Amino acid sequence: MAGNKSIAYCFPLNATYYNYSNNSTVASAYFSAVFSMLGLSSNLFALIVLVKTFRHTKSRSRSSFLLLLCGLVVTDFMGLLVTGSIVVSFRMTHFSWMSVDPKCHFCNFMGMSMVFYGLCPLLLGATMAVERFVGINWPFARSANVPKSRACYVVAGVWVTAGLISLLPIMGLGSYHLQPPGSWCFLNISSRFPVDMAFCLIFSLVGLLSLFVSFVLNTVSVVTLLRVCCRQDSTQRRKDYEVEMMVQLILIMVIASICWCPLLIYILRTVLSAVDVHPDFVLLYLRLATLNQICDPWIYILCQESRLRCLLHKLCFRTKHSVSTGYCSGFDLPHGTRSWTPGSISSSADPY
């Protein structure tokens, strides 16, 4: 009787009819393995780039931002490693979840991993938006003596928050469910039980709220930064790296919104309107959300300071007194110039 109960809460009634031998391109082991390896290698490369940049950064503000980015990269890397290993193993062996995991412990672990590694990037994006909002709009509110370790505590706090949310089904609020085609576990979206509906709402609303906070604060920060940059007769209160960080943060927010909004909105609409769940849509939206973990690292890799500096150089210095764009061939400006913004020149020897 106990065994039936454990199977009933995480395995759907038609779980035995899932097509475990699906050899289509999208569902094949090769596709899953290549997808995971691409994401892992991209995040590893991005981590190397960030660590190298961090070592040469003397600004506490930029160091804190880079530490938050490192936390995001590590989170994406571990998320792909944990969930990808399970999916690839299933695709290669076609094991039966009912036989391997009759007590649903393994299914719960994967469901927790999906929720944890799904919410962490969204929460970290909102945290970085708050950090930049305070740094740009109230620069003097940030103490110059704030240790770099504070960013590490912030990342740890985000991990704890996402971890507590992922543990809610273990504590009785909601449940994790095996999803078609039988290779992964996630929220029980189709359930009409109040606890399952409540957990689905918590997951979707936390994710959407994080994106909303990021959008509002980033918009205000960009407007403030543009007003300062265009004020050529004023002192350069904002360092050039503020532009670099904001460009990266905007791209992180845009990619996260594109990748995660379809799944989060679909979950919210399904729970509130009590419509039938379409497994194909859930799987499609989940794969789109997973792309976020692959796209994120390329933001840090491609948006290096020298490349962004060259782009802004072309956009902002189109006057008769501007420096020749020939210097951009190597993504470097003339020696002694490292300014991002028009009307301000600073020495490359100056620390951040």
From TrEMBL:
GO terms for MF: thromboxane receptor activity
Record Gene3D superfamilies: Rhodopsin 7-helix transmembrane proteins (1.20.1070.10)
UniProt key word Transmembrane helix: yes
Keyword Glycoprotein: yes
Listed GO CC annotations: plasma membrane
One Pfam entry name: 7tm_1
Subcellular location: Cell membrane
Superkingdom of the source species: Eukaryota
Keywords recorded for this protein, A-Z: Cell membrane, Disulfide bond, G-protein coupled receptor, Glycoprotein, Membrane, Phosphoprotein, Receptor, Transducer, Transmembrane, Transmembrane helix
Primary localization: membrane
Domain (G-protein coupled receptors family 1 profile): residue spans on this chain: 42-300
Membrane-spanning parts: 29-51, 63-89, 109-130, 151-173, 193-226, 247-268
Membrane topology: Multi-pass membrane protein
GO biological process annotation, one example: positive regulation of vasoconstriction
InterPro entries on file: GPCR_Rhodpsn, GPCR_Rhodpsn_7TM, Prostanoid_rcpt, Thbox_rcpt
PANTHER family for this protein: G-PROTEIN COUPLED RECEPTOR FAMILY 1 MEMBER (PTHR11866), THROMBOXANE A2 RECEPTOR (PTHR11866:SF5)
Similarity comment text for this entry: Belongs to the G-protein coupled receptor 1 family.
Name of this chain's protein: Thromboxane A2 receptor
Organism: Pygocentrus nattereri
